[in-house]
Design goal:
DNA-binding region: 29-48
Radius of gyration: 18 Å
Pfam families: TetR_C_13, TetR_N
Distance between the termini: 63 Å
Mean pLDDT: 93
Protein name: Possible transcriptional regulator, TetR family protein
Largest sheet: none
CATH class: Mainly Alpha
CATH superfamily: Tetracycline Repressor, domain 2
Order of helices and strands: HHHHHHHH
CATH topology: Tetracycline Repressor, domain 2
Number of domains: 1
CATH architecture: Orthogonal Bundle
Shape: elongated
Helix content: over 70%
Number of helices: 8
Domain HTH tetR-type: 6-66
Keywords: DNA-binding, Transcription, Transcription regulation
């Protein structure tokens, strides 16, 4: 009878996500993963199959976590409040292993290789953009933003601003919080 694994799969995916987020796909070796996850090669392959399979799980986890944070903000603050708070929240997360978006980093790194994980990252980015557009629609329906604004265009610009903000935070550190505040204040004038 097979032995039950003595590890928490979710915790391993979280640790792998953080390693991949910091180092990227190419910058993370199997030896790095084995050391971070404290697994021998056979156990690693039995648990995840391959580096790419684990990276895919890590991307999915990253996207799910971002969506959950946004949903929680919307439930607490309403649509516009969530959109205003989100830029500051992502920069204030002191537990994040890197400032730049893991999805954007993956897309940039792997798109030129025509790697399937680039398409997976792009799919998650498109879903997040759709979430932003839904929040802009809700804010519009609530009268918080003007009816002349296109929610899809607003979502694209907002996502672009967030990506730029996160890249700026890589070099500026906490000084990027002022940029996040400016993004948030700009939403109040729509």
């Amino acid at each position: 009878m097979p032995r039950k694994p003595s590890y928490d799969r979710n915790e391993l995916i979280d640790r792998a996500r953080d390693l991949f987020w910091r180092q990227g796909w190419a910058g993370t070796s199997l030896k790095d993963l084995e050391a971070t996850l404290q697994m021998k090669p056979g156990s690693f392959y039995a648990a995840f199959g391959s580096k790419d399979a684990l990276f895919g799980l890590a991307l999915d986890r990253y996207a799910q976590d971002g969506g959950k944070r946004l949903d929680a903000l919307a439930a607490e603050l309403g649509a516009l409040g969530a959109l205003q708070r989100y830029p500051v929240l992502i920069l204030e997360d002191s537990t994040a292993p890197a400032c730049a978006c893991m999805l954007a980093k993956t897309l940039i790194e792997l798109h030129r290789r025509d790697h399937p994980l680039a398409a997976r990252a792009d799919k998650h980015l498109r879903r997040m953009e759709a979430r932003f557009a839904d929040l802009f629609r809700q804010a519009q329906a609530a009268g918080d933003i003007g009816p002349g604004n296109d929610p899809v265009s607003l979502a694209r610009k907002y996502q672009s601003d967030l990506m730029g903000l996160r890249v700026s935070a890589e070099r500026m550190g906490s000084d990027a919080l002022e940029i996040a505040r400016q993004i948030s204040q700009g939403l109040a004038r729509l």
